[in-house]
Each structure stands twice: as structure tokens, then as C-alpha cells.
Amino acid sequence: KQWYQRRVAITAGGDELGAILGYVAFQNHLLKNPNSSVESLYMVSSTVSSKILKSIAKVEGFLAEECLTGFKWMANYAIRREAEGYKCLFAYEDAIGYMYGTRVLDKDGISAGGVLSEHASQLYGKGRTLYSYLEEVFSKYGYHVTNNSYFLCYEPETVKRIFGKLRNNGYPSSVGKFKITGVRDLTVGYDSSTPDNKCLLPTDPSCQMITFTFENGCVATLRTSGTEPKLKYYTEIIRRPGDTATKTSIKEELAELVKEMVTEFLQPEVNGLKPRPN
Asked: Mean pLDDT throughout 196-220?
């Protein structure tokens, strides 16, 4: 996906489009229902996606949750919450998958594309762009900068060895200069942030998935793909509104952390991992 700002093409990722569509869904609902209760509104995203919906919800006062990857999870979360009296406005995952409303309880690119195109046209009529709208979202709710990619790994035993090394001798406490403050391991059901150290999300011993929370506001998840021979990583740094750090400096900090994490945790050369093709 690309948009143009001052005649320069800017690539938009799935999380950035999710931020735009989520905020559009919220604004559109308020325009159509000015007297409705914000507390009854609901959004959901996959656990490897950006936390931007949660940041919007925290400021605006509605409920936002995360679930496992896949729209079978998101749609069922929406159904359950609507049965409790909530109204689901939006659901998404970073891999370009969006559910705008609940008319279609599944990934629906047609409705999402229509909403995005309509909003882009409205912005254009005001002399604005989708890029400026995204910057408005980040200005209000804080920058959310992501850095996601993967390595190819065709040997299951190699994957087991990599993740086994991360958990068998105690989870790591740092990556380079970056201190780790929390660990969630959905493979074995461990979560350091809960009182009983048990995961709130469903666990699956057949799928490798560990999430690390860092002192600098980064959240990083390592997981295997359920359909391809890929070892994926998802990373995001969140800055709260009013933070003086520039977007460029945040990207540089995240890139440094990702480099250290790949070197220490994945060890591509030692484990024979193939980088993502250009």
C-alpha cells in the first residue's frame, strides 16, 4: 500500500492502515450516534499486531482486547462481546486483514477498502492526505512504530532448539543494552505479568510463541508460522502522547533492538536461517 505526501510515495504497513481504520470507525460511530455510550464500544486485534487500538481505547474510554492470530478468534471475540452488550466497531491483524463492523464476521477487504477510499477522498477535499491523518492519530495517542519480518527455517528441530534455549535455562533478562521486564510464553502457558504466572490467552504446545516486554516500551514477539516454514518476529515501540522523541529516533532505537535480538536469540548463521527475500 502506498500513499503520496508532497509527491513522495510512502509505504503503509498493515498496522498503520489498522490505526487509520480503527480511528475512522470510532469517529464515524460518534458522528452517527452522538449520544451513545462510549463505554459500550469494542475493538479487537491480534496479539502480534500494534497496540494502537488499546492506546485509543485507553484515552477514549472504550474496550479493546487482543487475541490469538486469525479471524476465527477475532470474530468469536466480537460475537461474545456483542452478546454481553458491546458494539464491535473494528477488528484487525497486521497482515493486511480488517473487519470493519460486524456485517461480515471475517476478514473483509472490500468493506475496508471502501471505507479507506471514501475517507481518503474526504481528506483530499480538505487538502489533506491519509498520511497527515495517521500523524494526527499518533499525535493524539502516541507514536507506535513497528518493525516486523521473518527468517525461513525448514528444520523443525532447529526451531525447537532456538526456543528451547530461550526458556530452558530461564528466560533472558536483557538483549544487549535493552532490559527485559516481562515474558509471556504461549507455548507453555507462562506469563510473568499475571499474579499466578498463567497466560490469559489460550496456549498451544504445538506452536512456538514467546513475547518479551522491554523497559524502553518495546514489545517483541517471536513465533512460528502455522502454514509456512517461517520464524517470524514482531516488534513495536510505543511512546505516549507528549513524548519528545522523534519518529526517526524511535525507528533507530527499534532497529538497534531488533538487530541485537536477532543476533542473540535467533543466531541466523549458527542455525542456518535464511533471511526474508528482498
From this structure: 96
